[in-house]
Structures are given as C-alpha cells and as structure tokens.
C-alpha cells in the first residue's frame, strides 16, 4: 500500500504550503531505490517544483542502472532537527524535526529534450542559489550529465516539536 493513515495523525503535515516550505529549506534529499535484492538509499542534491523532483547524475553507475530496471522510488528530506534537553523524558532529550516523504517514478530526461534538461537543472540550481536560474548551460555540459525527473504520486509531511526558532 503506497499510503496509509499516519499513526500519529496530529503530527501529519497536509498543508501544501508547509510541505513546500520544508522542501525549500532542506539541503539534502535521501533518495531510496530498489534493485530487486536490497534497498539503495543515497544522499543527493535536488530541485523541487510541485509534482516533480529533479536530480543530476553521472551518465552511468549504480543509481542509473537501478532506475532503468525499476523506476519506482521514494525520498525523504528533513529540517529543524536539533536535540534539546527534556529532563522529564526518560532519555533526557527531545528531538524535534520537520520532514517530507514522497513517492514516485524516476526517469532519465532524454538528451534530445534539451529544454527539459535545462529547466530541471535551473530548478535544481535555484534550490541552492537563487541566482542559479540564469547559469549558462551549453550543450556540451548537458551532454555530460544525466538529469533525472521524479514525477511525485504521493507526498506527505510530518513534524514533531517543540521547535526553537533560530
């Protein structure tokens, strides 16, 4: 089952603006793939726009091999993870967090779809550097990189406070 109700539903984030905010602030995405024998999770840079995640990759390697065999994937990002003292808890600590988990199918954007590759790379660059949208991407650069697109079929957020605002 792709989605089941969250056990601690008071922690579920359903509001798309809050989900987008978490994704906007996250620095690393953990992409989970399945090669038929073992799960494969890797930290990866990403770009997000509603309904889509974008990643870049070398032209060949384990990640590309797995995606070509099985495009189904999931991802997780988290922000505001900061242990705080909680003397009343058995552990003595509390661990607040905000996270987003999504599911979808990942595909390689074909080299001949130059505009789609440029768009995806612009979204990715803009995630880390707001000026990144205007970085020139000549055809020679596009030919050296694979650009991956995940079409998100389900996304949800979760948060557990208390939060210390920074």
TrEMBL record:
The protein, known as: Pyridoxamine 5'-phosphate oxidase-related FMN-binding protein
Organism: Dethiosulfovibrio peptidovorans DSM 11002
Stored Gene3D superfamilies: Electron Transport, Fmn-binding Protein, Chain A
Pfam families in alphabetical order: Pyridox_ox_2
InterPro entries noted in UniProt: Pyridox_Oxase-rel (IPR024747), Split_barrel_FMN-bd (IPR012349)
Origin organism lineage: Bacteria, Thermotogati, Synergistota, Synergistia, Synergistales
